[in-house]
Amino acid sequence: QTIYLKDYTPYGFVVEAVHLTFTLDPDATRVKSRIAFAPNPDATDRTFFLHGEDLTLLSARIDGAEVTPSLTEAGLTCDVPDGPFTWEAEVEIAPDANTALEGLYMSDGMYCTQCEAEGFRKITYYPDRPDVMGVFTVRIEGDLPVLLSNGNPQQAGEGWAEWHDPWPKPAYLFALVAGDLVAHSDQFTTASGRDVALNLWVRPGDEGKCAFGMQALKKSMRWDEEVYGREYDLDVFNIVAVDDFNMGAMENKGLNIFNSAAVLASPETSTDANFERIEAIIAHEYFHNWTGNRITCRDWFQLCLKEGLTVFRDSEFTADMRSAPVKRISDVIDLRARQFPEDQGPLSHPVRPESFQEINNFYTATIYEKGAEVIGMLKRLVGDEAYAKALALYFDRHDGQACTIEDWLAVFADVTGRDLAQFKRWYSQAGTPRLSVNEEWDAEAGRYTLSFHQHTPPTPGQPDKAPQVLPIAVGLLNANGDEVVETTLLEMTEAEQSFTFEGLTGRPVPSILRGFSAPVVLDRDPGPEERAFLLAHDTDPFNRWEAGRQLARESLLAQITKGAAPDAAYLDGIATLVRDDTLDPAFRALMLGTPTQSEMAQVLHERGTVPDPDAIHAAAEALAEAKALRLAPIFDALAMACHVEGAYAPDAEQSGKRALGSAVLSLQTRRDGGVTARAQFESADNMTLQLAALTCLVRAGQDAEALAAFEEQWRHDRLVMDKWFAMQIAATAPDNALPRAEALTAHPAFDMKNPNRFRAVLGAFAMNHAGFHRADGKGYDFVADWLVKLDAKNPQTTARMCAPFQTWRRYDAGRQEKMRAALQRIADTPSLSRDTTEMVSRMLQG
Ligand code: ARG
Ligand code: ZN
Predict the structure, then answer these.
(1) Are the C-beta atoms of residues 811 and 611 closer than 8 Å to each other?
(2) What is the CB neighbour count within 10 angstroms for residue 143?
(3) How far is the CA of 262 from the centre of ligand 1 (A)?
(4) What is the ipTM of this complex?
(5) Is 286 in contact with 253 (CB distance < 8 Å)?
(6) 246, 250, 251: residue to mutate for ligand 1 pocket, most atoms within 8 A of CB
(7) 136 backbone φψ class: left, alpha, beta (φ>0; ψ -120 to 50)
(8) Tens digit of each residue's pLDDT (9 = 90 or more) over 254-301
(9) Is residue 376 within 8 Å of 387, Cβ to Cβ?
(10) Residues 216-225, mean pLDDT to the nearest whole number
């Protein structure tokens, strides 16, 4: 069944107050609800429908009198009085049997919830839609030491606790946690002087992994006050770490629930990258308190209203806390790796979709990351000051409301007087625009003209695309590498449009799309010389990195399609750059990186060539070998530049040095047979160095002893063992990936019911590009078999993990047929979930 944006109608009733009482039991939890409803003056349809799934209804009353509602799979309807009335019900649910991890479920003896998007209907009968907001009071009865829900704590006693959340909220923000937990506590005083108690709740034993998360929370709270003028609004802020969780984390009001992998950290067990990600996710969930909770979404089609904006805000936060250019480059790497394939394949959908079958399938890179890019463009177009004014108006005008993209754009239109009708296409048109450029130089007039052409290829359901508003940041350099025109924002609105620069004394070298000012594919091949020039001279760090990236891409392409040798201009350029001690080591580490093999498959596909995974792998190896050879003379100098003084800290400075060190180590391993990596593995006193060394040994095929030692050292730590599972599959040689992944699914610590562990094996296998795309198709079958098994238990994670198949039409006929057959086999599975059915059928059709 498909749901359409155009069919939106308001709910017939408003919720005035909600009282819930939970009597916890793993097999038979009782949930009593008392909800005050009143007719909604803005609605015409007065059908009283409550969502409810997998509930056993024990009793129902309206204004105290027993009623017999008509029940369906999806919920119930009932006759109700004309005016306000009170609905009371009691239902029974079985959290321990809930392996879907949606609604109320159990994770290793602890009760927890995940309600976004539509999980509350698995807890009790309720109008489970984001535009219905109510004030919740919750009583929890259970034989567990810690009983938590949203809002502020009220009375509590032995085996019970009461909570009251004064802020009206949709049901998707409801949360309950009960377990044997310990708190890492702190406190925060808001700008206006409200004292807030902060707690990070974890299992006994994990207390040592809380300090960093708590600091990140306090930094986020301060940052949102300083940058967006947003203060926290309750007396407590609780975060809980849960081992079994489908996603990263969830912004439930006053009670954020986190995948333990997204919050627990210590130097011994977490990498620098983990620390950075944790800081960003804590910020993201905290920022949702305003962009998501105080102002929520009218319906799930508006998901990007809160997600795109909150991702944008957390990126700004990370850029402020760490290095802005490094964050921007990392975000673009991620966008190209995850969003571009989605936007250019069968799952392509607009930032604001117009229909869906299962909303959980739309928590995508397009909604989140492209959604954030759209906000970045808007900010670039209107400028920082107008952006700040528009946001202030947004908070002022819409606090307490459930809003739409129209509301969002209206504050920008009202503040700037701009007509944003065309800009709005970014929300409705799917697909990645392609931008091409022609240059003209009139030496006599000193005039330089850039003529752009934009075109967005068709996507499923959208054969024709209209031109979009593209903010194109451009700078011009002269032949000496000096900047003669500083970064200028060109606003492209037509399919074809020219921009002229006057008064130049010589032909400039353009630096186009600085900062990746619009999420497009720039089709331009200026040749290796100009790229090498920009690599050496561009003042825009993003484009400087991009020049190196392009050289690497072109080298790999020529290697793959023409059997060329690795490009010397690229190697020389990189060698000069990484030696430059005036540059941030983190930036140099990014410069040393090369496109992933799946990125190369994407690039080949964009250029109309069928990617051959084995040839891509061979080319990547050859380029890495050549780089190792080229840089060997400076390994020692680079190692010096990476030297860290003092105790481990996961800050930008130290992380950057370690990132450069790891990049160098992986090249060094190709030259010294793993001697340096083995020494680092043995002496490492933090996970960043230990895992980097182990990864090098896995790549070198010298990993047997180190893998065993690592397992021995860390078998008690679930999160570290996830790394152990994932890394040895992702980094091993393609031939070895399948046997290894198969063997690891038989490992006693493999647990398909834990999403982190399942992803560590199956997700990592799909990341081994040539291993997954084995010509014999056995990689596809292996993943499909496990997806079928998991679907019966956890549809959400299964559906998400279908993504590696989305590129199936890119490959050669043999692989295509094998991938299609694997997808078809999943599709044909009896009683396949709605989630997975939607994903595989879109992939097969699109
Ligand atoms: N709102 C959460 C976040 O962005 C994600 C929750 C998604 N949950 C889901 N079942 N799709 O932080
Ligand atoms: Zn979010």
Answers:
(1) yes
(2) 11
(3) 13
(4) 0.98
(5) no
(6) 250
(7) beta
(8) 999 999 999 999 999 999 999 999 999 999 999 999 999 999 999 999
(9) no
(10) 99
